[in-house]
Prior knowledge:
Elements: E1 4-7, E2 21-27, H1 36-48, E3 54-57, H2 61-76, E4 83-86, H3 89-98, E5 111-117, E6 120-122, E7 128-129, H4 142-150, E8 151-159, E9 163-164, E10 169-176, H5 180-190, E11 195-200, E12 221-228, H6 235-243, E13 248-251, E14 253-254, E15 260-265, E16 268-273
Parallel strand pairs: 1-11, 3-4, 3-5, 5-8, 6-9, 8-15
Antiparallel strand pairs: 2-16, 6-7, 7-14, 10-12, 10-13, 11-12, 15-16
Amino acid sequence: MASLVAMPLSYQHPSMAFVGKRRTITRASNLSENSPLLRAAKQMVDTYIKNGMVIGLGSGNASAMAIQYLGSKLRAGALNGIIGIPTSEANASKAEEAGIPLDQYQDSSQIDFAFDDADIIEEGTLHAVIGRRRFLGEEFIIQEKSILNAAEKLVFMIKSDQYGGCLDGSIPVLVHHLNWRETAEKIDDLFLGDAEVWRRSSIGQAGPLGGDFPFVTREGYNVLDILFTSPIESLAQVAESLNKVDGVVDHGIITKFPCTAVIVSENGLSVVDSLSTNAHDGL
């Protein structure tokens, strides 16, 4: 099989695409008022969050800003009756500090809306990848994906260089610790010639097999990073292939529909919505 090596902590790779309807919200002349991601966070909260909603609280820089802004609106009385369901312990702490009432996620949870950061988003489908740069040993991907998929409406906040016409970079995969090498070999065979399989390390750049300190989630899983050296033609096809591999617990691909992306660029903020194949003009 191809190389199984440890993933450097500094590794990251953006890139993505577009098919829905794009609406420009804010021009570049207005962006100086705040950081671009903060403006995206405020736009998302002001547009989509209504009184009485149960909201999935995402992870990442933009999500942290959205949590803070949402808390300020609750304290000011501009919103009320909001319940937040955090995707991780880290953003649960942020939400508590912001004064957002919280509840724990359960399989029966009814979630009206969720927001999150994404590493990359695929044009047209708005399929996304999460988990590339996260190294905390808490709920890795599983709870986050469950909350996002349970939401009636999902919005991602990203920068424009994470959304383009050519998908590449890595996709994280959760695998059982005891037979991780066998699972890695199966994944490597799936994408032979197009990707390398790396076991993620928790400290620096480790040896070929993750070194003495492989990354282990709180649930006891290892993380394999599939680093694509050729363009990814379809995230849905990659997800479908991974779902069939014995030993794979979950992965960082989100194929939620419907879905919306708030995209930060030099020209301002744009909104792209995923559309069904028979959709008509006019969002």
